[in-house]
Amino acid sequence: MTEAETLTQKRTRRIIKQAMINLLQSKRFDDITVKDICDSALIHRSTFYRYYQDKIDLADDILHDLTSELSGSPTDKTAVLKQITQFMTQNVGLIRHLVPENESKFYDEFRHILEGLFQERVNNSDYQNDPIVTLIKNSTSPTLMMSFLANIIMGFFAEQLEYSPSHSLEAV
Questions:
Q1: Are 94 and 25 in contact (CB under 8 A)?
Q2: Tens-digit pLDDT profile for residues 110-136
Q3: Nearest Cα to 166, choosing from 110, 104, 92?
Q4: Which sequence spans correspond to the domains of the chain?
Q5: Which pLDDT value is given to residue 15?
Q6: CA of 71: how far to CAs of 30, 68, 129, 134, 156, in Å?
Q7: Which residues form the HTH tetR-type domain (predicted)?
Q8: How confident is the model at residue 75 (pLDDT cuts 50, 70, 90)?
Q9: What average pLDDT does this structure show over 96-122?
Q10: Which of 66, 78, 152, 171 could lock onto 83 through a cystine, CB 3.0 to 4.6 A?
Q11: Percentage of the chain surpassing pLDDT 90?
């Protein structure tokens, strides 16, 4: 999104993203077509392509928004695991269909988002008492530890979706 976007363009972009998010609540990313997105957004196909190259470009834009949402505000002092759990619980339908398995392009991207959140927290003095931050800082290889934790969370989330879809992540 450029600075020069008009309100109409911003609204159209938001409508397209919301249409994709709504579709991802019930359909896998691979099963969604540009036609589905256009039909849901009530826009013409040419309008979609004015804003996005393809549905992957749109998904990348949504992931960018999710990254901002997950990072939270600078005044949010929530422990990192609680923040991730709340985020995943609130976005379970979207994540379930956007990041369905580790072969997905978005699985890696989401794992990198988690690693970025860990790095952000490690570098912020307000979070030095967070147990995850302490674990990372005390590790002989903080980068490897962040990767390890991100993979554990993604694997755990995938397991919960596959084997315990009726249980909430917060309950687990």
A1: yes
A2: 888 899 889 989 998 888 889 999 999
A3: 92
A4: 1-64, 72-172
A5: 97
A6: 27, 5, 18, 18, 20
A7: 10-70
A8: low
A9: 78
A10: 78
A11: 41
> What is the DSSP secondary structure assignment for residue 110, as one 8-state letter?
H
Burial of 1 (0-12, 13-18, 19+ CB in 10 A): exposed
Buried b or exposed e, range 66-78, using 16+ CB within 10 angstroms:
bbeebbbeeeeee
Q: Which tokens in the block code for residue 106?
A: 């978005």
Q: Long-range CB contacts (< 8 A, 24+ apart) of 68-77?
A: 70/113, 70/117, 71/116, 71/117, 71/120, 77/126, 77/127
Under CATH, which architecture does the 1-64 domain have? Orthogonal Bundle (1.10)
- Tell me which DSSP letter residue 103 carries: T
Would you call 20 exposed, middle or buried from its count of C-beta atoms within 10 A (0-12, 13-18, 19+)? buried
pTM > 0.90:
no
Residues in the chain: 172
